[in-house]
TrEMBL record:
Organism: Neolamprologus brichardi (Fairy cichlid)
Record PANTHER family: LAR INTERACTING PROTEIN LIP -RELATED PROTEIN, PPFIA-BINDING PROTEIN 1A
Descriptive protein name: PPFIA binding protein 1a
Keyword Signal found: no
InterPro entries according to UniProt: LIPB1/2_SAM_3rd (IPR037619), Liprin (IPR029515), SAM (IPR001660), SAM/pointed_sf (IPR013761)
């Protein structure tokens, strides 16, 4: 694996909910979107070329292939099923194929709300539901139905916000270890349920075979210290270079001139 990809994988694997909140990402929808996007990359061994932005020969498209659709490709699908009028409403929404196929909370009701299809347009919503269910497959639809029947289920909307977790006060080392030990704190936990559809079998096997290798990329306190020392070294080097430029200017000045006067004259 190239170093740059290794570096990016390392950070993706260790994204916490609090990290997203610190980046002002507070939408429940966006958290789930990022979670499922990371899962898609895991299933495709972090190959960014797996993502599909443009339509191709997809007469018998599988749920695994749909999970690779970008937001732009989902909008193209809406146009292909005669919903072109509503397709632009998804631009920048965070809805992609992985969210549609892998996230149980994202159902046709959530999609209709994001598309701004009014509830009174029942035929239009039924049309959307028919094509949506045909697209994602029976296994994904069963998981969404199970989620829908959960007593705690709430409709996923664009305005729903993540509630920050309360953290007990203590040493940062203890807090960090607690976060690492609690897999649920990750945006996309290591033990997230893998899809059971047959089209995902190869990807799931590759992921499981490489899970041990990916877990070895666990960020250690020693690594953090090394990065911090390296960053401090860069800052010190930058400061030294600035000082070096100043002293070279001073040494280049004739003895009879005051360097500060030369600097003031240069601003005239």
């Amino acid at each position: 694996m190239p170093f740059l990809v290794f570096f990016q994988v390392k950070f993706l694997l260790h994204y916490f909910f609090e990290d997203l909140l610190s980046l002002k990402v507070g939408s429940v929808l966006h958290h789930l979107s990022i979670k499922r996007a990371i899962q898609v990359l895991r299933l495709n061994y972090y190959d960014p070329n797996c993502l599909r932005r443009r339509p191709s020969d997809e007469s018998n498209v599988t749920p695994a292939e749909i999970s690779q659709w970008t937001n732009h490709r989902v909008m193209e699908w809406l146009r292909s099923v005669d919903l072109a009028e509503y397709a632009p409403n998804l631009r920048g929404s965070g809805v992609h194929g992985g969210l549609m196929v892998l996230e149980p909370r994202f159902n046709v009701e959530a999609l209709a709300l994001l598309l701004n299809i009014p509830p009174n347009k029942t035929l239009l919503r039924r049309h959307l539901a028919t094509h949506f269910h045909l697209l994602i497959g029976s296994e994904a639809q069963r998981l969404k139905q199970d989620c829908l029947e959960n007593p705690d289920y709430t409709v996923l909307t664009a305005t729903a916000k993540v509630k920050p977790r309360r953290l007990s006060f203590g040493g940062f080392g203890t807090l960090r270890k607690k976060r690492q030990d609690d897999g649920e704190e990750y945006v996309c936990p290591m033990n997230v349920e893998m899809p059971k559809n047959s089209s995902f079998q190869t990807s799931t096997r590759i992921y499981e075979d490489n899970l041990e290798h990916l877990e070895q990329m666990e960020d250690s306190e020693g690594t953090v210290r090394q990065i911090g020392a390296f960053s401090e070294g860069i800052n010190n080097l930058t400061s030294m270079l600035k000082d070096d430029v100043f002293f070279r200017e001073v040494s280049a000045c004739p003895p009879e001139y005051d360097p500060s006067e030369m600097h003031n004259n240069s601003n005239i």
